[in-house]
Amino acid sequence: MFEYTRQLASAKDNYERIAKEAGDKVNGNILTLFVKSLLGGWFVAIGGYAASVIASMFYEQGASNGTARAAFSLIFPGALCAILFTGSDLYTGNTMSFTFALCKKHITFLNYILKLGISIMGNYIGAVIGALILSGGTTYFLKDVGKGAPYLMDMAISKTCKPFWKTMFSAIGCNCFVCLAVWSFYACYDSAGAVLIVFAHIGAFAAGGLEHTIANFYLLNAALISQSGVSFLDVYYRNLIPVFLGNTIAGTMFMGLPIAFMYRETPKHPIFKDSRSDDVEIKALIV
Predict the structure, then answer these.
(1) Cα–Cα distance measured from residue 193 to residue 214, given in angstroms and rounded to the nearest whole number
(2) Is the overall model pTM greater than 0.85, yes or no?
(3) Which of 17, 33, 56, 222 could pair with 135 in a Cys bridge, judged by C-beta atoms 3.0 to 4.6 Å apart?
(4) Can you give the residue ranges of every domain in the chain?
(5) Which fold has domain 2-286?
(6) What's residue 60's pLDDT?
């Protein structure tokens, strides 16, 4: 029989940690949050651009294109890693973490709504700037000019041709994966484990073709800029609105509230600590 140390926080401690950090973010400076969310949108844009370039190299019109989707899934998770390791901001993860802070009464409901609004506004502006600079500036996806034009055109059409409710349900599944990635990142005490779990969750939603608000802010605005055969109405009404609703429902009602309910009781002798540098260990025995 031997003993090992698992570098992983308990679920209760992880909930307390995320709720506290989210509360600090919500109660902090509005301009700071806006800059963080602006940077988060930019990171999603550069990740989406890089993933789309790689995927377009394997893309064939009319084929199943499993290889292209797998290539996208391997590259895109780097965007969330960049956001988490730099401490910048992502609206979809905030729908869960801010809900934790609200349930713990670290923040008011008015501040909850206000800061979620600041978060998505900054993400939107950052992602659109990315679309203008990367897709508009490089012309890699520009119709009849760029090598990646067929890929982006077919991707944009596939995202905007589905019924409103089907798109929203896809977005619910997507943000469950994103919130699980954020949850798991905070649970890990080593960077390698954090990166692996983020790649697993984000790669899963990308491979499944699920809909993510901030990713689509970049991808579909890039499609508009690149003249990929979709209209403003297609992009915003047929995709971005239902995806926003689905992502928000997932983060608040499918992840935030159930987890907050499970761990609503404050332990009499909490072992939660604020810093990852503290020695927090979970011991287990193996025969």
Answers:
(1) 25
(2) yes
(3) 222
(4) 2-286
(5) Glycerol uptake facilitator protein (1.20.1080)
(6) 87
